[in-house]
Amino acid sequence: MIKNNQELEDMKRAGFIVAKIHQRAQEISKPGVSLLKINELAKEYIKKYGGKSLFLNYEGYPAYVCTSVNSEVIHGIPRDYKLKEGDFYTLDVGVSYNGMCVDAAAIITVGKIEEKTKKLLKATKEALNNAIKIVKPGATLGDIGYEISSTAAKYGYNVSNEYVGHFIGKNMHEDPLVLNEGKKGEGFKLKEGMTFCIEPIFIDGDEDLFVDPLDKWTVRTKHGENAAHIEHTILVTKTGWEILDKL
Ligand code: MF3
Ligand code: CO
Questions:
Q1: N or C, where is the chain less crowded by C-beta within 10 Å?
Q2: Per CATH, the architecture of 5-243 is what?
Q3: How far is the CA of 231 from the centre of ligand 2 (A)?
Q4: Which of 107, 119, 114, 106 is nearest to 151 (CA)?
């Protein structure tokens, strides 16, 4: 569970690839661009930088990334949907390098975004930042969950606890889970060298979700409310934290 230097170097390399894909996707996500183009971009970058997609063929998943648009919550399969002005989507990317995994999701916006949507995206990003900021040896998973749920409460959003964060390393999903709610000082204690994913999901309304029966992957809100998901892979350092999916 504690990573050695070589493992961390490999994770940083995987994280670089993920961050490159996020950066380029934001640049090219203009009205009229198809989600299939975003999947192609990921395929191309993963190959170019010598990584492996963690998502392709994962339990039969058919693409390199997940693209979840507007009221799609997570696990949206890239399809020939042309992005429209005012859309936002979560681009979830998992890459391994030399066997070490990084998993991160960025919110990509298309043109001018409505005020109501801006507020949801801001709150979701703030929750992730608040949770990351308190990471250090001795902090607990309860502390992280508390930061996420209290940020949601502050803005009046619901949090999903059906889909949550996780530890990561040689595998994309490792124990324990990293919940989006918790009590300060409770739960698993963090140690230097641990790596895990924090992934708040905020819903602008009722938190009832369902998996689309047509594609068996896309998680949607029951009543069509917007939802936002964001994720970073974090390393616990001697004095705090480091984001591993960065350029
Ligand atoms: N990032 C997602 C997670 O943390 C993984 C995507 S699921 C896949 O669970 F099927 F697309 F791989
Ligand atoms: Co994840």
A1: C
A2: Alpha-Beta Complex (3.90)
A3: 7
A4: 119
- How close is the Cα of 198 to the center of ligand 1, in Å? 13
Dmax over CA atoms of the chain, in Å, equals: 48
Pocket test for ligand 1, best of 53, 55, 163, 174 (most atoms within 8 A of CB): 55
pLDDT recorded at residue 89: 98
Name which of 80, 84, 72, 71 is nearest 111 in CA terms. Answer: 84
Is residue 103 within 6 Å of ligand 1 at its C-beta?
yes
Assigned token pair, 139 = 């902090």
pTM of the entire structure?
A: 0.97
Write the CB contacts of 206 (distance below 8 Å, at least 6 apart in sequence): 158, 221, 222, 223, 225
Q: Domain residue spans in the chain?
A: 5-243
Question: What span, in angstroms and rounded, lies between the C-alpha atoms of 230 and 199?
Answer: 6
Distance (Å) from CA 179 to ligand 2 centroid:
12
Query: What are the strands, taking DSSP E only, across 124-194?
Result: 158-159, 165-167, 174-178
Mutation test residue for ligand 1: of 64, 74, 174, the one with most atoms within 8 Å of CB: 74
pLDDT digits (tens, 9 = 90+) for 179-197: 999 999 999 999 999 999 9
Q: Hey, whose CA ends up nearest to atom 12 of ligand 1?
A: 55
Compute CA distances 228 → 128, 140, 192, whole Å: 12, 25, 30
